[in-house]
Amino acid sequence: MDKIQKSTKTARGTVTCDNTTMHLLKANDFVAASIREKMTEKNILLINITSSAGSGKTTLLQETARRIGGKVNMKVLVGDLETERDADRIRETGVDALQIVTGGICHLEAQMVWQAMENLNLEGVELLIIENVGNLVCPASFDLGEDYRVTLIATTEGDDKPKKYPRMFLTSEMMLVSKVDLLEHLPFSVEAVVADARDVNPNIKVLEVSSTKNMGIDAWCEWLLEKVKEKQNTKKEVTA
Length: 240
Prior knowledge:
The protein is α/β, with parallel strands linked by helices. It has one domain (about 20-230): Rossmann fold. It contains nine helices and seven strands, in the order H-H-E-H-E-H-E-H-E-E-H-H-E-H-E-H. It has helices spanning about 20-25, 25-40, 55-70, 85-90, 110-115, 160-165, 165-170, 190-200, 215-240; strands spanning about 45-50, 75-80, 95-100, 125-130, 150-155, 175-180, 205-210. The chain has a seven-stranded parallel beta sheet, sandwiched between helices. Helix 8 (about 190-200) links the parallel strand 6 (about 175-180) and strand 7 (about 205-210).
């Protein structure tokens, strides 16, 4: 069964007026569908990582690249309003990364990703990860053609975010509770944030991670490798 397009999902208890959101995002979804088709043709797993600013996306990707960069051919697209700092940090691990500078736009859109991919050699790539702009609001509405959307929620930002920003968690397949090494110092409840996230999206998968203290990173990398393998096997089944 085909997935429901992310931009058309609505959290429980919300009302869409005259499908305005669907009309505004129709062009984006058209490009997203083209990206999804291209990723299927090239047999590339596409992951869209989202979070608020400072939740640890880049540090997670650095550690991910160190762990599995030698096991799969992976590349990264990084979205930020300005600078190439995050792409530089990822390139230091030996993994190719391309910065998308939005020039003030608070999210990535499918056409930005499409243009970036035209400047990235995707031959032989098995895993392409998009690090979205740090924002829990706007990126939730823009499907980028990803196979999976993964949202980080840091222990430093409070455990009330899933109910305050429901669309982001509704449209995510996984939530990573990051910076869990700081739990003993913060008034953050993992149980509360998981309960709220699953009230919004009962199917969301949850992992607790700390990129700096090596907590949960193995499980995260194993999940990625498993999904890469599933994508490869799907392609084999289709061509068999």
